[in-house]
């Protein structure tokens, strides 16, 4: 067996669950474990754990036992201490964003696929900083937090635009029988054209783990063994049936309606007109359904998340960060979304 990564227990907590391809996962990990690490000379980084489950998407977990990682106050202290670094990085970040938006207009494979990959890795450190610091804008009125929020809000769709263009190029470039399986191929496989067998692709579709920069195509038993061997513990909040629960207000308002959950690709076929959209979190792929819906409730996210930004644009009641909405609510439930107070009630 490979060398053990951790000798002491490491507690991981889930950040969010979203639809991602393997090459998206690779970019996310490299952006924080390599790009961010190198820029801050090892003082700040993320080494997220990714778990893909069929029908649910990819859940992203962070090691909260490591104080240098995502969500740590150390990140903010680092920025406060190195404002010159923050200023320079904002300039480089906005340059990368502009190049991405120019490139996605008429992208060509493989040149622009490779270019977008490199630009995404370049923008990731500031994207990570703006996410963590910007999310505190309602309770922290410092200039740093305000700027982080503005950076995140003004460039929200850039990383999604890059990913969407890369997915489109991958589908166009791959052999016909692999087009619908692009989410289960690595960056190198797509660029090189050295595609694994369909048998290997089908294995990945049944579940995989991306741990410490390595793809593990394994089942539940093997996953448990991998985590046990490396002293990894996944911490999840226990969920009990509730008539009422709370979250953070992203946009105020109060509305009653029927729940319609959006958790996987099959749910996109549902009619969301006038319904209460409930999701783990949202991405630009959900925009059509969000426009139809009367309000949004999410498990994950902070004030700079996609759901919060779209709610403010559409002026629709939105409660984010409930942690349990998708577990407590089911399609057809009648609920009241009290986004004036951040309360969801089952009626």
Task: List its traits.
347 residues, alpha/beta, Glucose Oxidase, domain 1, 2 domains, eight-stranded mixed β-sheet, six-stranded mixed β-sheet, 41% helix, globular
Give a structural overview.
The protein has 347 residues and is an alpha/beta fold. It folds into two domains: 10-232, no CATH class; 244-346, Phosphohistidine domain (Glucose Oxidase, domain 1), CATH 3.50.30. The protein contains twelve helices and 14 strands. Strand 10 (276-279), helix 10 and strand 11 (295-298) form a beta-alpha-beta unit. The radius of gyration is 20 Å and the shape is globular.
Order of helices and strands: EHEEHHHHHHHEEHEEEEEHEHEHEE
Could you tell me the radius of gyration in angstroms? 20 Å
Number of strands: 14
State the separation between the terminal residues, measured CA to CA.
Answer: 53 Å
Structural class: alpha/beta
Mean pLDDT: 89
User: So what's the oligomer here?
Assistant: single chain
What is the domain tally?
2
The global form is globular
Q: Main β-sheet: number of strands, strand sense, barrel status? A: 8 strands, mixed
Strand order of the largest sheet: 7-14-13-9-10-11-12-8
Number of helices: 12
* Unreliable spans: none
Strand content: 15-25%
Helix content: 40-55%
């Amino acid at each position: 067996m490979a060398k053990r990564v951790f000798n002491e227990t490491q507690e991981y907590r889930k950040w969010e669950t979203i639809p991602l391809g393997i090459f998206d996962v690779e970019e996310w990990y490299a952006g924080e474990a390599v790009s961010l690490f190198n820029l801050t000379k090892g003082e700040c980084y993320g080494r997220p754990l990714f778990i893909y489950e069929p029908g649910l998407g990819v859940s992203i977990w962070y090691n909260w036992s490591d104080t240098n990682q995502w969500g740590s106050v150390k990140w903010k202290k680092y920025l406060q201490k190195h404002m010159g670094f923050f200023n320079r990085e904002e300039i480089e970040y906005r340059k990368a964003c502009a190049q991405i938006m120019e490139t996605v207009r008429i992208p060509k494979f493989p040149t622009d696929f490779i270019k977008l990959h490199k630009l995404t890795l370049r923008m990731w450190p500031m994207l990570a900083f703006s996410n963590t610091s910007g999310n505190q804008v309602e309770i922290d009125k410092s200039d740093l937090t305000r700027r982080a929020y503005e950076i995140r809000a003004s460039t929200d769709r850039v990383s999604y635009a890059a990913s969407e263009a890369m997915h489109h190029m991958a589908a166009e470039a791959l052999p016909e029988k692999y087009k619908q399986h692009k989410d289960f191929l690595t960056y190198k496989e797509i660029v090189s054209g050295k595609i694994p067998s369909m048998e290997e692709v089908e294995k990945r579709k049944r579940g995989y783990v991306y741990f410490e920069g390595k793809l593990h195509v394994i089942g539940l038993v093997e996953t448990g063994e991998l985590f046990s061997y490396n002293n990894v513990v996944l911490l999840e909040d226990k969920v009990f049936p509730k008539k009422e629960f709370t979250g953070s207000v992203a946009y105020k308002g109060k509305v009653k309606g029927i729940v319609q959950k959006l958790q996987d690709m099959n749910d996109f076929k549902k009619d969301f007109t006038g319904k209460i959209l409930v999701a783990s979190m949202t991405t630009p792929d959900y925009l059509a359904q969000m426009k139809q819906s009367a309000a949004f409730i999410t498990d994950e996210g902070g004030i700079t998340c996609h759901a919060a930004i779209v709610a403010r644009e559409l002026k629709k009641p939105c409660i984010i960060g409930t942690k349990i909405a998708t577990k407590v609510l089911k399609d057809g439930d009648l609920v009241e979304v009290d986004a004036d107070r951040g309360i969801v009630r089952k009626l």
